Amino acid sequence: MTRDTFDATTVKPSHWNLSSVIEQLRVSREATHNIRHHGRVRELPSREALTTIVNGLQAVLFPTHYGRPNLTDESIDFFVGDTLNTTLNRLAEQVRRGLQFSAEEAIPDEEALTRQAHDITRQFAAGLPQIRALLVSDVQAAFSGDPAATSVAEIMLCYPGTIAILYYRLAHSLHSLGSPFLARLISDIAHSLTGIDIHPAAQIGASFFIDHGTGVVIGETAIIGQRVRLYQHVTLGAKRFPADEQGVLIKGVPRHPIVEDDVVIYAGATILGRITIGAGSTIGGNVWLTQGVPPGSNVAQAQMRND
Amino acid sequence: MTRDTFDATTVKPSHWNLSSVIEQLRVSREATHNIRHHGRVRELPSREALTTIVNGLQAVLFPTHYGRPNLTDESIDFFVGDTLNTTLNRLAEQVRRGLQFSAEEAIPDEEALTRQAHDITRQFAAGLPQIRALLVSDVQAAFSGDPAATSVAEIMLCYPGTIAILYYRLAHSLHSLGSPFLARLISDIAHSLTGIDIHPAAQIGASFFIDHGTGVVIGETAIIGQRVRLYQHVTLGAKRFPADEQGVLIKGVPRHPIVEDDVVIYAGATILGRITIGAGSTIGGNVWLTQGVPPGSNVAQAQMRND
Amino acid sequence: MTRDTFDATTVKPSHWNLSSVIEQLRVSREATHNIRHHGRVRELPSREALTTIVNGLQAVLFPTHYGRPNLTDESIDFFVGDTLNTTLNRLAEQVRRGLQFSAEEAIPDEEALTRQAHDITRQFAAGLPQIRALLVSDVQAAFSGDPAATSVAEIMLCYPGTIAILYYRLAHSLHSLGSPFLARLISDIAHSLTGIDIHPAAQIGASFFIDHGTGVVIGETAIIGQRVRLYQHVTLGAKRFPADEQGVLIKGVPRHPIVEDDVVIYAGATILGRITIGAGSTIGGNVWLTQGVPPGSNVAQAQMRND
Amino acid sequence: MTRDTFDATTVKPSHWNLSSVIEQLRVSREATHNIRHHGRVRELPSREALTTIVNGLQAVLFPTHYGRPNLTDESIDFFVGDTLNTTLNRLAEQVRRGLQFSAEEAIPDEEALTRQAHDITRQFAAGLPQIRALLVSDVQAAFSGDPAATSVAEIMLCYPGTIAILYYRLAHSLHSLGSPFLARLISDIAHSLTGIDIHPAAQIGASFFIDHGTGVVIGETAIIGQRVRLYQHVTLGAKRFPADEQGVLIKGVPRHPIVEDDVVIYAGATILGRITIGAGSTIGGNVWLTQGVPPGSNVAQAQMRND
Amino acid sequence: MTRDTFDATTVKPSHWNLSSVIEQLRVSREATHNIRHHGRVRELPSREALTTIVNGLQAVLFPTHYGRPNLTDESIDFFVGDTLNTTLNRLAEQVRRGLQFSAEEAIPDEEALTRQAHDITRQFAAGLPQIRALLVSDVQAAFSGDPAATSVAEIMLCYPGTIAILYYRLAHSLHSLGSPFLARLISDIAHSLTGIDIHPAAQIGASFFIDHGTGVVIGETAIIGQRVRLYQHVTLGAKRFPADEQGVLIKGVPRHPIVEDDVVIYAGATILGRITIGAGSTIGGNVWLTQGVPPGSNVAQAQMRND
Amino acid sequence: MTRDTFDATTVKPSHWNLSSVIEQLRVSREATHNIRHHGRVRELPSREALTTIVNGLQAVLFPTHYGRPNLTDESIDFFVGDTLNTTLNRLAEQVRRGLQFSAEEAIPDEEALTRQAHDITRQFAAGLPQIRALLVSDVQAAFSGDPAATSVAEIMLCYPGTIAILYYRLAHSLHSLGSPFLARLISDIAHSLTGIDIHPAAQIGASFFIDHGTGVVIGETAIIGQRVRLYQHVTLGAKRFPADEQGVLIKGVPRHPIVEDDVVIYAGATILGRITIGAGSTIGGNVWLTQGVPPGSNVAQAQMRND
């Protein structure tokens, strides 16, 4: 279908008092409501570039599903190699930009920054085969965990959980290698695409499956074992935030749940605080849980009232 | 040839050990973590193509709302006709691709597949007027069900529920005609756009209205009557998944609720299992419900605790 | 990564019975299921144009975060000025279109409409510095309210709540100036991007922070004080909809909660009706609340059942 | 907002003395070298829009060659109709803009201008079938006049002369209907594409063929009969320009050649002034001709010198 | 610089008598001026696809000049391999389409056509290294033949002759392998870009250099030796076209000049007919030559007249 | 009009012997036909970037003709300022790249190169008002020199000569400031757009007018006075190229004509060598001239032969 270009401007241009508005915005920006970093100018990482980069990594990891149709035996490695090279060059630049924001105070000189960005990128590349192995375990968990799933291809293409976990595993690797800002940006792109919000610092074992997924939140210090299954609206959050004597929040303290192996958490459950959900437990839908449960527990919501 | 676009690469290219990473990825792909289908190469349906197709169908169904501005009496049918033709040609190709994944074992020969894709597409086209009638009933239900709605145009353009239902009704038609993979892909696109996840196999009657909608999940075997109204975070899910003796999930068993005519389900309610919500019932917010209720019921959550 | 263009049409064109389908669609459109406004043709506002407009406004308000990299002292005001001018011209046209839909009955003549659109746009521009001040307070609230936040840049780029509030404050200004349709469209774009659904007519004070945010719904007549913090899945909704004697919903009646200053509402809480949450209260996760609570309250969900 | 695309800017931004340059440019623009029309602001026609319009007209006239592949009997008229409608709407707008520049002194009011633009466009549309007939005669002349031509398709797709004549015939129609500025713009687009420069006011009969064509110039008042064939570098130009007593050129005086039916003019011939090349004549390569020749003439260059 | 999108349609849509025009166009198309091939529908090769293909081949042949900046030793072959594979797949499809037009009468069945297209494409690929060798000789001839040339990079990027010869050598290879239509289309693209028109069937030896080049025409049966240099406006054309008894042109007869090794032909010379320019000759500017000259000749134009 | 995307690949992928071709290309590239510069890797200037840059400069110089429609008094300087800033940043990067190719032997270090690029760019910016003055004189010369010209707008939009001179004056400025490679690239872009080839090192006075223009060539050392008028196919070229004792061409020697003030040169004239065309002379069409003529001369071609 053809759409005409969108910004037909039939309204004639007018006088907008541009000078006055711009003057006030400058005052707001530079004086009254200045939020700009006071130091040398730092280029921000680009959301669009990261989207392209993650698309490239998807294609590198699963060329027949996310790459190009009809790759042949003689051509597939050329495709993977060229895509990987392009993608790593782009990534190194974004890592470099992000590094400027990771260390708040002392930014190393440009050359050291670039070297560091290259080292991180090279290590990230070296870890891709291992990430692929984890992702295959996740896809297989989805296939065996959802009776509605009819093929691996369906899980690769139609499950938001697959996308969320894929972005998470890439972001987690960057986070671990020392590129936290970039990692957060990647997780926010996944959040926007899927409604699933996984902090890249969270630790998640193999064979992880999120079904439907909208509204899932997994916090910064959460630890999740192997073969865990979550449904939509599940929150693994913090109960309270420790603050110092001035009331300033202390960052980085463990404050999210530990979920052991083989746990299933149904839709809408809210689990808060540094508590442990024992291995093999099942947490029912809409449950609000702030205390740990032993392995093999079966927790369900209080009964409803039927008027 | 590919030219890069937006992402300025100020970081100089580096040595990434490409050969080593690519070698390991090949081993992962072909040996250790091979998830590729073992048969002839099958082109996957394209998410981008389907987005274009659904945009085309929207324009065909509601040319003044989703088509092109300022269509006139002498031109509207040319627009509808040309858009429909283009869209059906594209759809037929995607249906063909999808068919290869529907039947896991024996794929018919290429020519039979193409013929089948054309038949499905032709029947789908024939059903469009009926789909339009249903969608008009849905829009009218929104207008009369939401006091914040000010015009039909607002419902067509600003309500995620409208988009989710439109995608669902198109996907359901394709599912019914034998193109389940494509149907799933369409429903996942709607999910990403709206946060509303309706399985295309679900059966939903006329005058259906979802308000706000983020987090709504409607499962594969759910059946919904006429004039039903849902709010955000409502789950119509499965309680448990029957497995066979080897522990493999049995697919296709009815396991989601039946919601009869004129039911209203408020935000956050989770309704699980093959239970029936009787006609005219009201289910309150955040309720967790695993047993059926008779017609005219009024179910609310247990009381909160006020410390 | 290079993707080949997506709609390769290997399936040969077929006979689709176009004439018959088009004929039936025309009958549906013009007779049996006609939902078109009966008056003069009115161009709809364009979602794409509004996205471009909001991007432009973001760049005008925060040029170093959302504008162009590497703006210098001598160039920044040229950028802001040119972007603002372009954006206001586009906005005036969309406001003009939207005005046709705000007043259902009597649309003023074209010239009056254009003049009105210009007036609204000019007033909107004049209010931008004040909107910027509010947004800075919101960003600071996020920084001090989330222990996981590491920099202002992270909050500007990686927090869906930031985007949702930014869109809301722009939409609310347009709503207040008499452009409700446009305001709704902007809020729906934010909803699609973030999963957060704030009606533009809601009133929200400074230093507002939504964490994670997916599934948050804030209704049309809600009133929120200063320094309020919400988490994901929080609903500030209506309990019931007053109808007139014919059963037609009465529009515009206050029916959503009032949340006073310094309230925190945790994930999944559903608060319905024109009730007041007193200042300084804390509402726990998953609570379903339909009655007001006094200042300083601490409301939590009923206990779960542990089988 | 505009985002940069392809041009990586590794050079850091610098201080360009923007204010000074901009100030001087303003002085040049408004005072010392002011070439702006002194009257109300007039939007210029858009070269890009005209390119789109001509592409649309090509598709309308020859849908299987310039339109869309694989049009079927049931779909072709929908395509032609929709493309024609879109194209005429675009054309009417460009005609309206162009009209402001055709009449230098008194521009009619906006409404009269719009009405006039619509009348011209409607008449232009009515003439399209006749233009198609002429173009088919031209294509057939190419096929029978060039031994290297192997198919009609080759002539439609690979001959710059075909494009130049097609653009000319469309431009000539617009010129005749009172839209000379637009006509000139179209002829300049063709000139840029093909190196062939035909003034839209020239009159050219059926079955016209230009082979190779680069460097052909046909002046404003040239008249060309039927079945004429030109090769590259042929000029049909003016010898001198009559001026009035103040030395100002008199515009519109016939000053270019008349070429009668069945004339062939070989590469590089320069024919100047209001002279007549009699029917059936052959003009040799590189000839410089400023006097008319009778029918049946055979003119060749003076002999070369061989040192 | 930002340009607003171009087709703002401020002119309201009008009544264009679409039905009447479309009806007349159909009659012209199907009856009175029908130029369509009478046989099965054949997709035309695509000019846009060929432009992409030639860009790809340029990148494959000279990756550092026409490919991607900053290719490294470890990445260059991945780039070349992936670009070559993509380009050959695209080329095979265009060759297939073109083959339908090469043989006017009997088109082989689809499968044979595809097989033939693959064979041609595979042979074409095998010839690329040899084409590269020729092109390097051409570039070196330009560098040593033009005192204004300052570097190889300048010749690769700024000389239209380089582009024209590159396109010619690719087109000539396709022509020789049996894909004449495609070859012609490629040569016409080069013609449009450079003003240089070389028929792909012409035979041209190594170290060929065209300076400036606009208006150069080299005919179908021309034969050019090694180390030949041409300037702008040089025509190597046919003098007359032999026709059969019915007056139909006989196609394929040798009718263009033979230019032996080490000849220089200056600007504007027109050389017509199957004549031989002996090795080492110099032909002066604007000469019109229809008889052969022995080796070592020095031909100049007759003297000018100075009034 | 909608065109489907162009590279539908209905032909199945095949085996292309990629490895063999790639291997041979590598050998050709690195050994047998290596034309790569032997030194550090140097990024080439980008033709696309330069096109964008020239578009930006056009908009800066003539914002109402080449910029954005409907600029107002309050907005025009914001537009000019922002466009100029963006364009200069882009230009500085391209100048930097080009500098690497200007000095063949010793490239200064990166920082010196960047500084030099900024200096050139800053001086270039400072010269823009003067360039504008010259261009206005050129436009006025066209208006008074062509009886077919109807308005300044027509000359700005529809005359290839205007574009060619505009590109030339910008390129000449860059050439003079020490950026010859970039200057050549700009002149080649103009050549491709207009068929007019002006070497950026040529010196051309004010009020210069080229009518039609296809095939005009003006050589590197040509000097043209004020108020000169040229027509299509005029060559101001070199007669012979002085070589040193090894036969290597000596670069930079004056070898093109000097054309004094108020000269008119008609279509197809070829003027070669370092000769002087005296002020006020008229050179007729197709003349081949290798000796200077005194002021006020009137040179015409020898008579034709009429068989």
From TrEMBL, chains A, B, C, D, E, F:
Q: Which CDD domains match?
A: LbH_SAT
UniProt KW rRNA processing keyword: no
Q: Which GO terms describe its molecular function?
A: serine O-acetyltransferase activity
Q: Which GO terms describe its biological process?
A: amino acid biosynthetic process
| Reactions listed under catalytic activity | L-serine + acetyl-CoA = O-acetyl-L-serine + CoA
Which EC number(s) does UniProt give? 2.3.1.30
Any Pfam family hit:
Hexapep
Q: Which UniProt keywords apply?
A: Acyltransferase, Amino-acid biosynthesis, Transferase
Taxonomically, the superkingdom here is: Bacteria
Q: Which family does the similarity line name? A: Belongs to the transferase hexapeptide repeat family.
This chain belongs to which protein, by name? Answer: serine O-acetyltransferase
Q: What organism does the UniProt record list as the source?
A: Duganella guangzhouensis
